[in-house]
Amino acid sequence: MAGHAATTDTAAISVRGLHKSFGPLAVLKGVDLEVARGEVVCVVGPSGSGKSTLLRCVNLLEEPTAGTVRVAGVEVTHPDCDIDGVRRRIGMVFQSFNLFGHLSVLQNVMIAQRRVLRRPAAVARRIARENLDRVGLAEKADAYPAQLSGGQQQRAAIARSLAMNPELMLFDEPTSALDPELVGEVLAVMRSLADEGMTMMVVTHEMGFAREVADRVAFMDGGAIVESGPPAAVLGSPRQARTREFLHRVLQQ
Amino acid sequence: MAGYLVFAAVLAGVALGADWGRLADAFFRPDIAAELFPEIITVALVNTLLFTGLAFAFGLVLGMALALMRLSSILPYRWFAIGYIELFRGLPSLLVLFMVGFGVPLAFPEAQIVGGVYGAVSFGLGLCAAAYMAETLRAGIQAVPKGQLEAARSLGMSHARAMVSIILPQAFRIVIPPLTNEFIMLTKDTSLAYVLGVTASSIEVTKFAGDALNRTVNATPLVVAGFVYLLITLPLSQLVQRLERRGNRRK
Ligand SMILES: Nc1ncnc2c1ncn2[C@@H]1O[C@H](COP(=O)(O)OP(=O)(O)OP(=O)(O)O)[C@@H](O)[C@H]1O
Ligand SMILES: [Mg+2]
Of A32, A206, B106, B152, which is least surrounded by CB within 10 A? Predict the structure, then answer.
């Protein structure tokens, strides 16, 4: 890797003084966040507070306006950073699944293994099947995305990320596009990932999941992290008035 | 309703008043029609398909390059693509063929187009077709949801790899119907090939029929040529309709 400082710190993600504007609209206004290896951090907050933008700055799907982002010791905001090299170590799961529509489920899970990691077809196929099995989709390997339910599509998308052996996973509201009865199956897969020690940064509106699975919850509002700590503290007895208001609103629904 | 009655009355008048014998003599004499075979198929139709196929292939490659330039973040590429598309959409194919066949050789006598008249015709028609195909392909690429590129990039694919493996295959499916229409248009445009001096072996359907017309002083060859074109274009336009119906159902 070219000329950027690798550090010895153990943080999986380290965000410092992160600012992001879209033209005149300032969306992130100085965000600091650390995610340790093996830690599960849930980011919660009202719509438009900048949660997705923060997550997308971690793998540079959005270019930060100012500040630094380090992932596994590599400064991704450094101009010389080999971003494709870093991204293959970061799994990302989207609200809208984004499975490749022209490929079968098995091919979806194989293609980046083949084209990015250059694994031989037989190896990629074996790893793909293992990961489909892991998310409970072994028998859907030959189906096309359009033939799957939303929950199945999202589990296939998780398998696609896992097949790359990522060091950490980013989730952007993975269950928000699902019918209520399909949310559970996706959360179950995420919960088992957390149990296996995967480092996870999860933007979610599922307060139950955050309370039970997260090591830490960060509450965002107006482009900044307002409050962060163990779920019992942030969700149980929030210190900030804005956090209380938000929780009051979501728990009423 | 009154309109239909008038229309029916006119049709009936034409049918009754027409001299069917003379019409058949002018437009369909079986002996003249028979004389056209098998060359109108084995030579003329084959050449028409060859001109069309070569022009389509060249136009598709150039059109794809232009579409990618049109979508590039590099401004001069974009300008070039826009300039090219606007220019060649505005020029008659015949003018471009004259330019390729006579204008360029006059300016550069040493230069020779590979493939003789096949090369010149498919190059000239392909230059024009590329402008239309570029716009079609651009629209197809833009119709692939943005999330597909983001998912591909987040797996570590480079932009080029994501384009080749993820975006373009899906874009192509979207543009198959309009590209088939483009193929039909090109088939008809190959009738202009004669201006570059096709020979007995490179003759295509329209020139073949025109020569026969001069020889026989009868319109039968034109009618037969028309049916030969329909042989190509009707199945294709049926295919487009089927694909479009299927596309609509999938949405
Ligand atoms: N590409 C973009 N261009 C312009 N504005 C953007 C862009 N992406 C996000 N925004 C704006 O940035 C703000 C924060 O968006 P973001 O998606 O990060 O919010 P969020 O907290 O994820 O909200 P939600 O819960 O609705 O997903 C919003 O006002 C949004 O309109
Ligand atoms: Mg969001």
Answer: B106
